[in-house]
Amino acid sequence: MDTINKNDLNDFTDDVKAYVNVRLQIIRLNVTEKVAFTLSNFISNGIYFVALTFFILFLSIGIAFALGIYLKNNALGFIIVAGFYLFLVLAIRFIFSKGLKAKLANYFVKDLTNDDDETD
């Protein structure tokens, strides 16, 4: 049997240490990339949500005033619009609550585990 040279063993341990360090750096970069992607997706969707909320808010105010003019009672116009939104919220709550939670959870898990560009 050949004896293992002490220098060869030191070289091997140095190579293993270097390999482990490189793998740790790759893992850190992958985690950083996924967090950055998720955060940017969250921020862009948040901006979209805020803009859509303002659009719906001003549209609702306009419809409420239009109904108020038509019915000759502004308060009644706002009550009708509020009733519509209450109906909408209750319909979403009772019809889509189970499926919506699962779809949102799957979306976030898919977003965090996006491994399309990884090759190991």
Give an overview of the whole structure:
The model has no long low-confidence stretch (mean pLDDT 86). The chain has one domain (6-112). Helix content is 88%, strand content 0%. With 120 residues, it is mostly helical. The protein is built from two helices and no strands.
| Order of helix and strand elements from N to C terminus | HH
Tell me the overall shape: rod-shaped
Domain tally: 1
The main pleated sheet reads as:
none
The portion of residues forming beta strands comes to: under 5%
- pLDDT under 50 segments (min length 5)? none
Q: What percent of residues adopt helix (DSSP H or I)?
A: over 70%
The chain-level mean pLDDT equals: 86
- Annotation field: number of helices: 2
- For the secondary structure, the number of strands is 0
Radius of gyration: 29 Å
Secondary-structure-based class equals: mainly alpha
What is the first-to-last residue Cα distance?
A: 35 Å
